[in-house]
Design goal:
Length: about 750
């Protein structure tokens, strides 16, 4: 087995606090005589690892890390090193498919797009119009593709029904950033690892999800003056094993834990009263809410030891430069937005934001999740604009030269779970799915299959392979992928990379941008002057149009060009490594992206409600009490299921299963059990067990691990024996992110 499969994080290069992370050049090439090296970045996680693509005889034959890039300094994730082989897979889609006689058959682009446009025009010209259209995208398209699609949907069709699988992975990141700081946009920087003296990882198995960032943390930990580390995770992950303090929390109790830690910080005098008084709103309410969360009370709720909670609070409260990272263990769990805001609260009351080593990274799970939020490919308006602010709507209407009433803003944008509900109910009759596989990734898969099978729902799937979802489609459009098209994407710390086209796509496959632009031309969308609404013909033209849209907004790209990006990644806004270093936040009522929500109910606050708070560019502290999960273990289903990732795969293995090294490392699903639970059940390592929830059943082999007793873990990547046969249709009231981490299940030995 390859050494980077056996050791996913590679050789250590230790360094000390405040020093530059040393270079380590990773490379995997399968052919001699490379003809060209083409700049790009990773598309198989959110870290944004810069790399060069090796090309020979018109094919990709390998990759190498770019040593001069700020993100990875030459290092690559195992998925980066091997995942590119999927591009060359023999089962790539090379021609469009249409459904005839109940079967998908090959056809030409004219026929396929003709069917898509004919159904679109039939719906737009009939009663209900825009209300019948739904677009469900990905976190893997390029910025230019999201922006073009956003204009098509919001100004061409005028539909609010646009979202993507980013709702499943990092909607809570966006919601928490908006709630605390006024707009989306990551406050921290990966460079904070170089300067911090403490790292707290909140539900973030960074060793599997952003392995190069984990390498950076490990290198600091092996150098002089290493940062202390706290891990909050019910599993004994590599992160938990490395941490100085591991809180193996009961799933669904994150809010209680964060409240208790903040209480200890306040009661111990570890907060910054000067910063708090000058730069935040809501300290008194926060202190009052958390006061009941004593260590013993939190220990009872979370299934922890009170002394461990006190030790964790001391680590958080006495550090001079604290870096926090947050991911799915918080985002996909009970009270997700409230818990993520709790981490923001901790940093705000300590003044740990906007300084080297002191910051928050509300992480993304996908390589271009940041871009769909920026550019409006999901429900958000482009440029982090506020759908409820008439002036923001006027700005977009003027930019796109359309009537303000065309742009949907009469209600909140439709989130993904509601889009699927509308499709289930029959009001959405046209569903275009791009670069994602919801027949494996959404909760309660039996329900999703029923929706996709509805004869009255016209389904378009745009992808590289005939996925589990594509098998339900009426039209399948073969798409080009990374390395086969030109465009930009932005990682979790606001670093923009340019991905150059290295090779031609296979057969008749087209870039997602070309497909969207073709659709716009065929639909003949027009602006108020009768000119084409979508006039662009190249990625760079779309990028320049996007820059105008972003100008003056938090995600301002105006200082970035394709030419500048050819020298390496650039953060937005240009020259700004960290946000909010001056203590002023994006909470001005005329500038903010949201007027806020009730974190318990999700109810929207009005502009008048918001203005009455007189934010004065101060950040918000949000405090709520812990509430139990909507589904908890009981007599019939006595254990809690949490789902997640393995380091060797990305999402539904559409690409990584086609890389031999990655697939061999994790070819099949499994369940992780604590040895005590296994002994009680009479289960040994490798035994087949059935896992049953109120929604379905899977059968998988058991692995005995350090997962918390009473909790089991199943990776979500696999289409067969899929973890999401078990998960529930429920979501956070604010972010609308599904609750994948708290299903009640029963585990039994299987003969």
């Amino acid at each position: 087995m390859d050494e980077r499969i056996l050791d996913p994080w590679g050789e250590r290069t230790p360094y000390g606090q405040g020093l530059e992370w040393p270079v380590r050049a990773d490379e995997h090439v399968t052919a001699e005589g490379v003809e060209r090296w083409v700049p790009s970045a990773s598309i198989l996680h959110s870290n944004g690892d810069a790399m060069d693509i090796a090309v020979k005889d018109g094919r990709i034959v390998g990759v190498r890390g770019r040593a001069n890039d700020r993100v990875n300094r030459g290092r690559l994730d195992p998925k980066d090193l091997y995942g590119w082989q999927a591009n060359n897979s023999a089962d790539r889609l090379t021609r469009p498919l249409v459904r005839d006689g109940g079967r998908l058959v090959e056809t030409d682009w004219e026929t396929a797009m003709g069917r898509v446009v004919a159904r679109s025009k039939e719906l737009t010209q009939g009663p209900g119009g825009w209300g019948h259209f739904g677009f469900y995208t990905s976190g893997q398209l390029f910025l230019e593709e999201y922006y073009a699609l956003g204009v098509i949907g919001k100004a061409g069709l005028g539909t609010p029904h646009m979202d993507g699988n980013t709702r499943l992975c990092t909607a809570t990141a966006a919601a928490a950033l908006k709630a605390s700081f006024g707009t989306d946009g990551q406050p921290g920087s990966y460079g904070d690892v170089d300067h911090c003296d403490a790292i707290a990882l909140w539900g973030h198995n960074v060793a599997a999800t952003q392995t190069v960032l984990w390498m950076r943390m490990l290198d600091r930990r092996r150098g002089p003056n290493p940062p202390r580390m706290l891990a909050v995770d019910p599993r004994e992950t590599p992160v938990a094993k490395e941490a100085d303090i591991h809180l193996a929390i009961r799933p669904g109790t994150n809010v209680a834990l964060v409240n208790g830690l903040i209480r200890q910080v306040i009661h111990s005098g570890w907060y910054d009263p000067t910063y708090t008084q000058a730069h935040v709103i809501g300290f008194e309410g926060l202190a009052e809410t958390v006061d009941a969360y004593t260590p013993s009370h939190v220990a009872d709720i979370c299934g922890l030891k009170a002394r461990d909670i006190e030790r964790a609070a001391e680590l958080l409260g006495t550090s001079e430069r604290l870096l926090s990272t947050v991911l799915q263990g918080f985002y996909q769990s009970n009270q997700a937005t409230a818990a993520a805001c709790g981490v923001n609260n901790l940093h705000l009351i300590r003044g740990m934001i906007g300084r080297p080593g002191a910051g928050v990274l509300q992480m993304n799970g996908q390589p271009t999740a940041e871009n769909t939020r920026e550019a409006g490919g999901n429900g958000d308006l482009p440029g982090f604009r506020n759908w409820d602010n008439p002036e923001h709507i006027r700005e977009l209407a003027e930019l796109w030269n359309v009537d303000e009433t065309t742009i949907p803003h009469w209600a909140p944008p439709t989130h993904a779970m509601q889009i699927w509900r509308y499709a289930e109910q029959g009001s959405i009759k046209f569903l275009w799915i791009s670069a994602t596989n919801p027949a494996v990734t959404l909760p309660d898969l039996a329900r999703i299959r029923r929706i996709l099978s509805k004869p009255e729902l016209f389904v378009v799937v745009q992808d590289l392979f005939l996925t589990e979802t594509a098998a339900f489609a009426d039209v399948v459009l073969p798409a080009a992928t990374w390395g086969e098209k030109l465009g930009t994407f932005t990682n979790a710390d606001r670093t923009v990379h340019l991905s150059e086209k290295a090779v031609e796509p296979p057969g008749e496959a087209r870039s997602d941008l070309d497909i969207f632009l073709d659709y716009a031309r065929r639909m003949d969308f027009r602006d108020r002057d009768g000119d084409p609404l979508v006039p662009w013909t190249s990625p760079e033209e779309v990028f320049e149009a996007w820059k105008k849209c972003s100008e003056g907004r938090p995600c301002d790209y105006t200082g970035i060009t394709y030419e500048a990006l050819r020298d390496g990644g650039i953060q937005w806004p240009v020259g700004t490594e960290r946000l909010y270093g001056d203590g002023f936040f994006n909470t001005d009522p005329d500038y903010c992206e949201t007027y806020g929500h009730d974190l318990n109910t999700g109810a929207e606050f009005t502009a008048d409600d918001y203005k009455a708070k007189e934010p004065g560019r101060r950040a918000f502290l949000h405090a709520v009490d812990y509430q139990p999960s909507p589904e908890t273990p009981g007599e019939d289903y006595p254990m809690t299921l949490t789902t997640g990732r393995t380091v060797y795969h990305f999402h539904t293995r559409t690409k990584t299963a086609r890389a031999p090294e990655l697939n061999a490392a994790a070819p099949d699903p499994w369940i992780e059990l604590h040895p005590d639970d296994a002994a009680h059940l009479g289960v040994a390592e490798g035994d087949q067990v059935s896992v049953t929830s109120p929604r379905g059943e899977i059968v998988v082999p058991a692995r005995l691990t350090g997962v918390r007793p009473g909790t089991v873990f199943v990776p979500f990547h696999y289409g067969q024996q899929a973890a999401n046969e078990l998960t529930m249709t429920a979501w956070d009231p604010v972010s609308k992110q599904p609750l994948f981490k708290i299903a009640a299940v029963r585990v039994e030995p299987r003969d």
